[in-house]
Design a protein that fits this description.
Layout: H1 11-15, E1 23-27, E2 30-34, H2 39-58, E3 63-66, E4 78-79, E5 84-87, H3 89-92, E6 105-109, H4 115-128, E7 134-138, E8 143-147, E9 155-157, E10 160-163, E11 172-175, H5 176-179
Parallel strand pairs: 6-7
Antiparallel strand pairs: 1-2, 1-4, 3-5, 5-6, 7-8, 8-9, 10-11
Length: about 180
Amino acid sequence: MGMAAPIYWTAEMVRQLPDDGNRYEVVHGELLVTPAPRLNHQLLATRASVALGNYLAEEPVGIVLASPADISWGRRDVLVQPDVFVIPPNEALTGDWTRLRSLLLVIEVLSPSTARADRFTKRRRYQEAGVPLYWIVDAEAQRVEVWTPGADLPTIETERLMWRPVGVGQPFTLELAELFRPV
């Protein structure tokens, strides 16, 4: 008896799945399914989002958003939902996920169910798309992996994150002690 051929998922197939509380993504035909995030995950994502939002209010070079989102870069086999991300203001004006082309910064907060996909599958796709900066927040290790498009290995930050997008006067900084502080 032969094995069944694997399903090669497309973004359109994922969009047709029921809204059952799971998060569905597809990268290079691989379906990624994760349950609703844990409280600590959401706390870290919210802290990062608020800090970025405050910064971008002073340096208006981008708009910070959080998932759920359908980022697909117009390809059939890619549909990602970054935890937190920044897009250029002109792309926010389109009001259409399918017209987003430029992610200026992406942040994923690791969870037990997402660690492999965040570190490998999605990280590679973000690098291929030319996302200039990708932060993987690891609450357990109290550190952040910093990835750039051409990097083979991340830079590991244990004290602070810094982001200096084009056209700003002051860089964004986030002290990791503040990000990881207890509730």
